[in-house]
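SEQUENCE WITH STRUCTURE:
===
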Amino acid sequence: MIPYPIELTPDDNGTLLITCPALPEVTTFAEDPDEVDRRASDAIEEAIAARIADGREVPLPTATVKWKHVVQLASQVGLKVNLYRALASEQITRAELGRRLQWKREQVDRLFRLDHATRLDQYDAAFTALGRHVTISAKVVAKATKLARPGFVAGSNRAPRRQPRRLIPQARKHAS
């Protein structure tokens, strides 16, 4: 997960103005404090996706210790941003990554699309092709957060997966 600090400013119409110092293009609002995290993470993810699509730098956030409000982006976003930054630091194109992986262009492009859920083994392959490896850790947080609804991914704008419907056969009425 990538923590991005945000600034909240009360607006004159009762809403909260949300900005992100690391990404100046991020400006959104929330009508109440309960929706700040969702609105902020959606706006930050949108800004990151636009930067990746345009081939621009995606800055990592500054130290979050001094900030009062911090939004945690989903782990999937963090992996995509780190892969994008690794490609840039190695000065390797997506086409070259595709050649190294022996993947088609669309497969490589999906690694960088924030709206695509990439499998962990694909990240492993991509980072290995760059001479890197993925390390995953889980840390204890001060408070546990409830998910808004079952299947909802916190920090993501994706809708939950629907549960398959169970078809219950109805008894047939026979005419006598």
The beta strands are 2-10, 16-20, 23-30, 69-73.
